[in-house]
Amino acid sequence: MAMTTIAVLGAGKIGEALLSGLLSAGRRPEDLLFTERYAQRAAELTERYGVRAVDTATAATDADVLVVAVKPQDIEVLLDTLATAVTPGTLVVSLAAGLPTALYERRLPAGTPVVRVMPNTPMLVGEAMSAISAGTHAGPEHLAVVEDLLSAVGKVVRVPERQQDAVTALSGSGPAYFFFLVEAMIDAGILLGLPRDVATQLIIQSAVGAAVMLRDSGEHPVALREAVTSPGGTTIAAVRELENHRVRAALLSAIEAAALRSAELGRAHD
């Protein structure tokens, strides 16, 4: 598909990150549009990126690809506008958590291709993990377009839409779990007498190094953990406490709760 103009509907953190990534990947400012409800922020983004701010109706008529980056609670008002403004063949890409492609297909003109995406906040630093799913009218060519767009800000995988709630719980919410763990580890360092800045530097670099090892070594996480766990040593003593406090079970329950909440968000718009 020869897609030329892309409009990002909702220029919050994720929307701005996508605009920035597309520009860094070589897209021309004149081939991008965005919508933003606050005039001052719209002006700031236009000055920063050279991309034109428009209203939703203009975006719907002028763009070949509409990227929906609003919060789920704002989707109804947006769809009311899009329903009468979207032109035939426009590709709609939804970044709104929990919202199924069927919602868009029900409200937009018949045959509108919709691709559902679950990104995450590392998009802000070009390291997103995004999972994409095709709606009823979206084909391989539409998925290829979305992969090309999102590759500008991270990695992309394809999954059946029925797996999107699990994706939301794992990678969509996933960064928050890592931040929570890092916060607790920094507090532990302070408890043990380290200055906060030293504890923070130690833990953040350890997290970065561990992530690179997971990505690049090809080793299973268990093998990497066992390599640090000497018999009778400090690490196994810590692991025992983690197991005694059921940290593994707590993580399983937390991720399951996130998946259930994602499903609830989708059902709220049935």
Describe this structure in words.
This protein is 54% helix and 13% strand. Strands 3-2-1-4-5-6-7-8 form an 8-stranded mixed β-sheet, with helices on both faces. With 270 residues, it is of the alpha/beta class. The longest helix has 21 residues. The protein folds into 2 domains: 159 residues, NAD(P)-binding Rossmann-like Domain (Rossmann fold); 92 residues, ProC C-terminal domain-like fold (Orthogonal Bundle). It contains 12 helices and 8 strands. The model has no long low-confidence stretch (mean pLDDT 95).
Strand order of the largest sheet: 3-2-1-4-5-6-7-8
Look at the structure and give the mean pLDDT: 95
Largest sheet: 8 strands, mixed
CATH hierarchy, class of the largest domain: Alpha Beta
Specify Rg, calculated over alpha carbons.
21 Å
Strand content: 5-15%
**Spatial shape:** elongated
Count of DSSP-assigned helices: 12
The percent range for helix content is 40-55%
CATH architecture of the largest domain: 3-Layer(aba) Sandwich
SSE pattern? EHEHEHEHEHEEHEHHHHHH
